[in-house]
Task: inverse folding
C-alpha cells in the first residue's frame, strides 16, 4: 500500500499530550478509510506536525484527518524509502 507524509502547520505550542490525543483520534477511525497511521512527530516551536501513514490515497488520509478535527495542510506521497 502507498505511504504518505502529511504536514500540519500553525500548531505552535502543541504538547506531547495534544499530539497523542490527535494521533489517537486518527487511529480510532482509520480503518473506515483503510488507512494505517504509523507515526506522528511535532516541533512545538515551529508549529509543525508530521504524520506517516499507509493508505489507498492522499484523499483517504485527508478524510480521516478532517473527521478527527485536524485537516492536514499538505499530504505528500512517499514513493521511495530506504
Result:
Amino acid at each position: 500500500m502507498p505511504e504518505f507524509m502529511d504536514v500540519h502547520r500553525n500548531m505552535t505550542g502543541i504538547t506531547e499530550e495534544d499530539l497523542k490525543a490527535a494521533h489517537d483520534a486518527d487511529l480510532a477511525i482509520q480503518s473506515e478509510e483503510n488507512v494505517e497511521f504509523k507515526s506522528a512527530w511535532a516541533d512545538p516551536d515551529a508549529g509543525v506536525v508530521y504524520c506517516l501513514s499507509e493508505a489507498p490515497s492522499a484523499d483517504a488520509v485527508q478524510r480521516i484527518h478532517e473527521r478527527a478535527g485536524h485537516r492536514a495542510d499538505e499530504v505528500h506521497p512517499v514513493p521511495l524509502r530506504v
The chain has one domain: 3-77. The helical segments are 16-29, 58-68. Residues 3-77 form a domain with the Alpha-Beta Plaits fold (CATH 3.30.70.3090).
